[in-house]
Amino acid sequence: AQRVTQPEKLLSVFKGAPVELKCNYSYSGSPELFWYVQYSRQRLQLLLRHISRESIKGFTADLNKGETSFHLKKPFAQEEDSAMYYCAPRRRGSTLGRLYFGRGTQLTVWP
Amino acid sequence: GAVVSQHPSRVICKSGTSVKIECRSLDFQATTMFWYRQFPKQSLMLMATSNEGSKATYEQGVEKDKFLINHASLTLSTLTVTSAHPEDSSFYICSAHDAGGADEQYFGPGTRLTVT
Would an 8 Å CB–CB cutoff place B105 in contact with chain A? Predict the structure, then answer.
């Protein structure tokens, strides 16, 4: 069965501390992986995707096929990073672009 | 960047009535749009894939006669909740897939439906 797991519903860190939001997936084939973020009272937006290998707002995520993980990391968290983060796999080559979201992790960065 | 709008942002309707929610891609064409449902403090659940000019594809467990989807143009998809019941109260979010550009989904701001 296709499944994405975000084990932490809530995650709190202090400003300047490293943060890691976990995502594990169980998908047939080699899916594309995305992280989406939803700031308070704002719409969902793409944070980063694994194929681009870029760093957005200081966040990076490495796809580990052996562990089937796509954890989101940032070395020094900022208060403005407080938001809801969703991991979402997508079947590779799927022109329909269907995304199935994990349950999300609410990150709170304390001053 | 690409913008997706939804209308209305908030709607209250009586049990048994129908309500239509619009999703528009404002500056790009979207052959595919998606409808999600989000319960309080929960994740987004994909309801259906809306394809321009053809029938929508519904996810397992989603009643197609209950949630009517029409994708009449490349910039507009509508979701009609028919014979609404209080349990249909939820936050409905659409997204539009920009296949021609960045191969990215852009999300609308959502519509809060309350059925009394």
Answer: yes
